Amino acid sequence: MTSQAQPNPVGRSKIPLPSLNLSSALALILPAMGISLFLLLWSAAAPRIDTSLGAFPGPGQVLDQAQTLLAEHQQERAKEVGFYQRQTERNADRLATDPNYDAKIRPYTGKPTFVDQIGTSLITVIAGFLLASAIAIPLGIFMGLSERLNQTLNPIVQILKPVSPLAWLPLVTMVVSAVYVSDDPYFQKSFITSLITVSLCSLWPTLLNTTVGVANIDQDLMNVSKVLRLSTLTHIRKIVLPASIPMMFTGLRLSMGTAWMVLIAAEMLAQNPGLGKFVWDEFQNGSSNSLARIIVAVLTIGFVGYCLDRIMLFIQQRVNWDKNTQVR
What we know:
Layout: H1 22-45, E1 50-51, E2 54-55, H2 59-97, H3 114-145, H4 147-160, H5 165-179, H6 189-215, H7 219-228, H8 232-270, H9 275-285, H10 290-319
Antiparallel strand pairs: 1-2
């Protein structure tokens, strides 16, 4: 007997369901659970903490102040647009009556907003980090390749490495004030001071990790370079850099985190523009909203630091020759 294929009942056609990746789901669920637990504990503890400015703000109050800070930024930008528009209209009217009139546009001098301070800090930390990397990576490579150079410079590195940014800042401030003298400076002295302080404090992790990474390159790779008689630059480009990238990027990620922390402290102490100054100003202000605004700044500092680390991790994954290496 031949069996006939039974048609599927209407509405019961077999549709392939998307497979659920458990690890991907957990990667979303577990962080959400951790954040939710943190917010619950924060909400429960905040009303029980009394300060000189009142009860410690909870998540709701902090969210309100975050929205207020964003609204203040938008209002300030609207004022800036109106300021330049009025100047443009005024100059157009003057030029219509006097073609020889020397029209000028005065810069807007409004108070920096919270968003402006974030931008200022980001520009400063990236500039300081790049300067530190430009010094630390080449020096670390040569210290890793030369044992004698490492023995010569390592005592200096170990002495300067633990120096606090609070100790560097007065020295850097005095040197910049004495050396960087100009009637029309291209960069503000506060920017140069913060940049140099950040660089001095953040170059050490990259320097030490690069040195260790280069010094521990597989001897077989070094022998290949000798057999091929590669020049110094070719040896560094073809052998040293690819082999030391994992350790080098570990140092770069540590340096980026250090640079961000140092910058906030330097801005608070020196009253240089940025997030650190915003926190200090709110602390000195002492209004009923100051605590909530400080917490907004603290969370922003943490989030920006996390984003900077993820960016460095993304770059590391793209340039690392060993795609099976676990990076976190």
